[in-house]
């Protein structure tokens, strides 16, 4: 669908710095369609619809207000974050079909590891046995999308218990390591690029 698409592997990157970089890229005269792959240091982020009461006890983890859609979530080492900066006008995707595309991409990625997953109406993301394994939060500005999806790979899931993930009390979370012991974020990143290239 896109004439040009660049993938960037950014390693570990500060959340607020990355958010500012995304915004700068969106308004740049040299904008091009890019997908960024990275990890964040531990942080809770609040989406535009977030209720701060869903943070039960942040402990010593920073909390920041984001401009993505959705509720509160956690990012940390061992989680692959994929940010999509795409000119939707050059695709045939609207907001809903973009979310559906990202869910189906994640489902196909998990199937590569023999993990069966499902979707829940009204709760964007991907679930395995009713546990959330991937979260989606997007923002569209002037026909361009930014933010994206986070996939739990091999991380300390404890901080998810400090919040009501995505605004749901008691929502359990899962990660790829639960089903495939020998896994790294880089493995999943490489597979993600392979699967995303034909989609966009």
Structure description:
The protein is of the alpha+beta class and 200 residues long. It has one domain (6-199): 2-Layer Sandwich (BirA Bifunctional Protein, domain 2), CATH 3.30.930.10. It contains 3 helices and 10 strands, in the order βαβββββαββββα. The chain has helices at 15-27, 95-111, 185-199, and strands at 6-12, 34-39, 43-46, 63-65, 72-75, 79-87, 118-120, 123-128, 131-141, 144-152. A 7-stranded mixed β-sheet has the order 1-2-6-10-9-8-7, sandwiched between helices. Strand 1, helix 1 (15-27) and strand 2 form a beta-alpha-beta unit. The protein is globular.
Give a summary of the structure in a few sentences.
With 200 residues, the protein is α+β, with helices and mostly antiparallel strands. The chain is built from three helices and ten strands.
